[in-house]
Amino acid sequence: MITSEEIKKRLWDGANELRGSMDASRYKDYMLGLMFYKFLSDKTLDTFKKSSGMKQSDEKEIVQAYHEAYEQYGEQLITMIRDVLGYYVLPDNLYQTWIEDIQAGEFEVQKVTDSLNSFERTVAVTGDADDFKGIFSNSTIDFTDTALGSNLNERSKNIKSLILLFADLNMVALQKGDVLGDAYEYLIGQFAMESGKKAGEFYTPHQVSEVMAQIVAKTSGIESIYDPTVGSGSLLLTVRKQLNEDAQKSLIYYGQEKNTATYNLTRMNLLLHGVRPDRMTIRNGDTLAEDWPEDPQRPNEGVQFDAVVMNPPYSAKNWNKSDLKVSDPRFEIAGVLPPDSKGDYAFLLHGLFHLGQHGTMAIVLPHGVLFRGGTEGEIRKRLVDKNYIDTIIGLPDKLFTNTGIPVTVIILKKNRNIGDPVLIIDASKDFMKLGKQNVLQEKDIAKIADTYTERREEKGYSHLATREEIIKNEYNLNIPRYIESIADDVPQDVDAHLFGGIPRSNIAELNVLTSTVPNILEQSLKEIRNGYFVLSSSIDEMTENILKDPYVIEKSNEMEVKITAYMNKYWELLKNIDNVNQITDLKNEMLIEIKNILSEFNHVNIYDGYQIIAEIWQHTLTDDTEIIASNGFYTSGRTRVPRMVTKGTGKKKRLEQDGWMGSIVPNALITKHLYRDELAAIEAKKMRLQEIETELADLVEAAKVEDSEEELALGETLNEKEDAFLVGAVRAEIKKVKKDTTEYALLKNVESLLNEKATLNTKVKKLEKELKEATEERILTLTNAEIDMLMYEKWFGNVVDRMVILIENPLKEELHTLEMLQERYSETLSTIEEKSEQLEKQLEAMMHELMVNE
């Protein structure tokens, strides 16, 4: 079975190879459009196969049977498929027919264009016309575009390659467990990163979507969701993933998108994720130009939704091209229109207008909306007075590819209790740098979501701002007014600088050391004067004593016991997973439980532990559980798949098989545990090779020294460009010199080393090849016990150690602070004066010598 990660990598590698110099934001329309058409064709064939009762699994046979059935039954057959799917693809227009034409050398680009146009015409007469209308419009997918190739032959070649990229993917099978949808979403995200500033038109970074989705999904009873600037639909789908299975089935999706190509992308994305056409209403239109959706029964209220999410264009200029007035129902609540130069509040007010009384809204906007004055200040005041602003979350800068500015997520509700404070979260410092971009890790998202749920205050991170505070700040909601950053630097003490010693106040702030190992800390400090101390033990000694302290050992052992029990519990659940739909729930359960376990330990960073488990899922468990759910644990453990490697460059670049690899069991672990002796023998030979290389390198350097014995004996045998001896030259020189001479001995030594090196290299290659082949064969005969041992190490090998370190980390961090304080105050006024006096004396001595010499 091909996993989500394998599909993502293969498709993205293929996209990069095929698009050449074509702009990513444009190429995505072709690639994602054809991928979607393959899905439509596969769904058509699958429906035909099930409806006709066919047992064949060979695709070519099914395609042939579909052709024959169409010739015999015509419209009757098509009506049957259309009644099931709401659409159909005619036999001659199937994606599979294009592939057959390519294989037969009869492919024509016009056939693809005709097929897409035919699909447009067939859905135009169905009840689902709006769901598919214009989805393959020429403005989006134009196969005459010269960017695909300067002439017809070039375009034909490139389009054929793109079609073949999806040829072997069964889109119906991949749709189960959302594998197909995840791959599609991944490609959208990758194209967004490649597209730079153009990405803002169609994509919200997944990490930002996740923050919004986890918060919005906490609203109970979500049955409808609306995104007025829907882009690719990623926000809608991310919220869906946070809901339980029953809620997902009944969820109704609404979205509006101004850009036609992106509007088409939205519909494709939702359909590929299994959203039924009757559950989604997506409109191609300008959200601000006129209100939508409207309720004919209540024209001035608009349709209300349980959840509203949006990532609108930031500070859109000239947004009011329709000359809207404050009497527009969407803006009445504000009493004024947002400024024409910045449309941020126009989008916010539109979303708020469509928010149900018990719903939740999340919107991403630039920080300016929190503090700008004028009419925006008036709107902000009205929103605070109406008690609609629930939470403000400050995020880091450089999260988006289309802007480097930091953004804020604002959460709004209409049913807040009078007197409820506004939760303000400053998450701007929690991120990981990845190239030029900053990214939120899973632990950062979890901390934001937990802080929101618990409405908790944390110094330097979150604060509950009362209405009185906000009024005192003149309705300015700029985050630094409410949350003061915690300075990383420990404040300077002038007295300590003058006379030395670490201030008692600084020591008192070492909360972890003072509460965990107070005796060791006290014994390691010597008071040199009232309130000031120096270390009487080195930091290394203190670290050793602290880690051996009975309390620290007890807590470390307790952590080990709890984490081992945790791993053993989920080991059994992971091994026995038999449905891909269980995977997400199991992951969430593991992440919640690890937080609960770690919360029992004082001073441990819960979210660092959370990240450890999240990364195990990211790197191994997601793929492995997909395979196990389909094939079973032990069957998967004894299954091997081809290891494909890229060879050649340019036009000769190709994928070739290079042996086999375990479907879930890593070859490296099999070798490490089941072929220890063979591995040790190879390592011993490699170590000897390193020794030989060192000896030869020393002789090369010696041979470069003019008039040295080595230079006289070996100089003529050197290849100076490569800093190496030429074996042929060495042998020729041996014949020239007399035996029993230094020259002869040096030459024979080099010859011996070169011969041994060549022999060892040959042996190592042979042994490595044999070990590789033995490992690949061993996959097929692994016992259940061996699979257990190897997979347990793969999943949980170092988890206990990493969790125990979480107990040690805060202690070591404070020891580092203590060491810094010791160094900071070690140079006092008196030591500086002593150094100054010494320098003066040295200068006087030098001056005296100069005078004497004169």
Automatic annotation (TrEMBL):
This is site-specific DNA-methyltransferase (adenine-specific). It is an enzyme of class 2 (transferase). GO terms for biological process: methylation. Its EC number is 2.1.1.72. GO terms for molecular function: site-specific DNA-methyltransferase (adenine-specific) activity. PANTHER family: SITE-SPECIFIC DNA-METHYLTRANSFERASE (ADENINE-SPECIFIC) (PTHR42933:SF1), SLR6095 PROTEIN (PTHR42933). PROSITE patterns: N6_MTASE. It catalyses: a 2'-deoxyadenosine in DNA + S-adenosyl-L-methionine = an N(6)-methyl-2'-deoxyadenosine in DNA + S-adenosyl-L-homocysteine + H(+). Belongs to the N(4)/N(6)-methyltransferase family. SUPFAM superfamilies: S-adenosyl-L-methionine-dependent methyltransferases (SSF53335). InterPro entries: D12N6_MeTrfase_N, DNA_Adenine_Mtase, DNA_methylase_A-5, DNA_methylase_N6_adenine_CS, Restrct_endonuc_T1M, SAM-dependent_MTases_sf, T1MK-like_N_sf. Signal peptide: none annotated. Residues 7-164 form the N6 adenine-specific DNA methyltransferase N-terminal domain. It comes from Virgibacillus dokdonensis. Residues 675-709, 750-784, 818-849 form a coiled coil. Keywords: Coiled coil, Methyltransferase, Restriction system, S-adenosyl-L-methionine, Transferase. Residues 176-486 form the DNA methylase adenine-specific domain.
